[in-house]
Amino acid sequence: MKAEEIRLYAHRGACLRCPENSLEAFELALTHGANALEMDVHATSDGHFVVAHDADGARLAGDARPIQSLNLETVRGWRLDGHALVPTLDEVLEAFPGTPMSIDLKPRRPQLVQPFLETLNQRGAEEWVTVASFHHSVMLEVHRSGWTGRTALSRMEVVWLRILPEKLSGRMIRGQSAQIPIAAGPLRLDRSAFIDRCHRLGLRSDYWVINDPEEADRLLKLGATGLMSDDPELIAPVVAAHQKRRDRW
Fold it and tell me: What pLDDT, in 10s, does the model give residues 99-150?
């Protein structure tokens, strides 16, 4: 009997080998062992969603102006690491339809939720996209909106999951996926008891950012359902080995 597929998310694509969050980075990741993509989005001043982690282009394009203050034409004029274009969200959805994705709406601006979800719905992406945001106010708006796809826990929900009694946290949490680091401040999240709690509550346990094969092996032995990595080619053999073991159970 085949077990549920372990997700290997390419964190911002294969971002150690290509400009992060570029179409090239996503394409390379999928050819090198990733079976899912992770990305971030911001909104331009004229209402387009672009795939970018930072709120401005200083680090990757040498332009410190905030994306929210610029129109799409200006942002499209940037060259990531000197050559790659900043893709729009719609371009990524069109390029990789059906590919599992986690898309993080970065701004703490709940008013962006409705147009963001409309972009996803126009592509039928509720079947394969998990909507994420650290900001609880943003995720509350996602849940109010009627989005029928998967959602990740906000940062606040992760804390509730870790520190509150299980029955209480289960009533308070709205998402289906715990996308988590190894630790959140003093709270360790890489323990079998925590992963088991996630699974009892029907939650995925997907860890970021895992670039060490030994760490990947340890987390998968604990029962993690997925990993996010900057270098999926390095982590893919570990995931494949664990998938074979789980399929035999």
Answer: 999 999 999 999 999 999 999 999 999 999 999 999 999 999 999 999 999 9
Q: How far is CA 242 from the centre of its chain?
A: 21
pLDDT of the residue at 249 = 77
Q: To which residue do tokens 């911001």 refer? A: 42
In this structure, the strands spanning 204-207 and 226-229 are parallel
pLDDT value, residue 188: 95
Q: Domain 7-248 adopts which CATH fold? A: TIM Barrel (3.20.20)
- The CA–CA distances, whole Å, from 59 to 49, 54, 76, 122, 208 equal 19, 8, 16, 32, 21
Within 10 Å of residue 116's Cβ, how many Cβ atoms?
Answer: 25
Q: Where are the domains of the chain?
A: 7-248
Q: For the chain, list residues with pLDDT below 50.
A: 1
Distance CA 29, CA 194 (A): 29
Q: Give 87's DSSP letter.
A: P
Q: What is the dihedral of CA 57, 211, 108, 83, to 10 degrees?
A: 20
The contacts of residue 124 (CB under 8 Å, 6+ apart) are: none
Closest CA to 206 of 221, 217, 219: 219
Strand locations in 58-191 (E): 63-66, 101-105, 129-132, 150-151, 177-180, 183-184, 187-188
